[in-house]
Amino acid sequence: MKYIILIGDGTADLPIEALGGKTPLEYAKTPNLDAISAKGVVGRSKNVPDGVPAGSDTAILSIFGCDPNRYYTGRSPLEAAGAGVSLKEGEISFRTNVVSLGDEPEFLDKTIYSHNGGNVEGEQSIQLMQALLADPAFCALAAKLQMRFQLSCSFRHVSVIRGVDAVPAQTPPHDILGRRIGDYLRADPVSQMLVDLMRRAFEVMDAHPVNAARRAAGKLPANCLWFWGEGKAVTLPDFYARYGKSACVITAVPLVVGIAALCGVPSIDVPGATGDLDTNYLGKAQAALEALHAGKDLAIVHVEAPDECSHAGDLNGKIQAIEQIDEKVLGTLLKGMEGEPMRLLYLSDHPTLMSTRTHDGAPVPYVLYDSRVDTGLNRPFGETTAAQGGLIDPGTRLLSILFEQEPQA
User: Fold this and answer.
1) CATH code, 245
2) Domain annotation covers residue 78
3) pLDDT digits over 345-369, tens only?
4) The domain boundary residue, chosen from 174, 202, 231
5) Domain end: 231, 263, 281, which one?
6) How high is the pLDDT of residue 407?
């Protein structure tokens, strides 16, 4: 028996008037999802427990069978693990986004327009970070926190500080798009040191030739840093020891790589795979099939694009991403596994709402398809259909249900 989990990040949503009262998932053309929904088990899963932040960090921990109430110490330590950063005792890591700020004269009055620097490309992001690390004033401010950086070929970098017992929760940048940043920056001494770093980062990055070129090309400038997702080191239970299944992950998102790595699950790099709408959908599916045919029991395929489109307020992009997942990922997986016994779980990790452009912790729709069984449900997949099925709560039970190590609720 082979197993597949396909995660459409942020796919779940609420009904939208412009879509005739349908959700993006219900409006999109998804013949493959509808086909497995007609034969599979459909319901909802609560992946974000009450009392923890709604996001991919907590939700994907649940999907990996790790209770966020027990294992969640912040987003950045999980992402740091994905970047190969090992945290030492007494260290706190931050997710360090390259963001886009407006041109208001006073720094605290600036508006944040993009949590990913206008989708800044990897090489440009690296150039901007290298300029910061060559700037004496920025380095002097970083030295006060004994801060070190791990650079990434994306808008997501990792920073680590020492000598601080705790840091107040910093605001996720994707939650305050279009708003004045000064209303969301903390006033405690450590946070103010981070604000000083952000202020200097803006002075260096905004005037950099990379951003002159971006503006000339009609793009948002990637002109500041944003520190968030703070947390200390965490240890997660070994995946194979718990479930007796070998697994791999295909994703372009360091957070998911990190959660997998901390569980002892390797990740497979796919050329052209990004966290955006232009990702290599087909390549991800083909990598999963190759891993399964080479002996892996489980392939976990994660696609970030619907989430990023939701944050950007791009409804058409979100629908397009859902359709691409259905056609190029799910369709390829089903064709490649045709004739073989397989159990496949499709779900969103958490909802990302077009109405707010932020994450939500509500239960998400899932479909569990077994190639050996036809349930005769014969209904299209979506939030409405899922609401008529059962609820898996907590979502940490998903893997045991997928592996038939506990009965379906």
Assistant:
1) 3.40.720.10
2) no
3) 999 999 999 999 999 999 999 999 9
4) 231
5) 231
6) 56
What pLDDT is recorded for position 409?
42
Confidence (pTM): 0.82
Does residue 97 share a domain with residue 61?
no
In a domain, 296, yes or no: yes
In the block, which residue shows the tokens 């599979």?
A: 40
- Picking from 303, 255, 254, 249, the residue whose alpha carbon sits closest to that of residue 281 is 303
> Quick one: 108 and 56 in the same domain?
no
Q: Which amino acid would we find at residue 348?
A: S
**Are 136 and 157 found together in one domain?**
yes
Residue type, 203: E
Domain-embedded: residue 81: no
Q: Which domain holds residue 214?
A: 91-231
- Please count the helices (runs of H) and the strands (runs of E) in the chain: 17, 14
* Both structure tokens of 167: 């840091």
366: CB partners within 8 A, 6+ apart = 42, 43, 44, 45, 345, 346, 347, 348, 386, 392, 398
Tell me the three state secondary structure of residue 131.
helix
pLDDT digit string, tens, across residues 182-222: 999 999 999 999 999 999 999 999 999 999 999 999 999 99
Give the CA-trace dihedral at 145, 151, 155, 159, to 10 degrees.
-20
Burial 176-192 (b: 16+ CB within 10 A, else e): bbeebbeeebeeeebbe
Listed as ranges, residues in the chain with pLDDT below 50 are 408-409
Count of domains forming the chain: 2
Burial of 298 (0-12, 13-18, 19+ CB in 10 A): buried
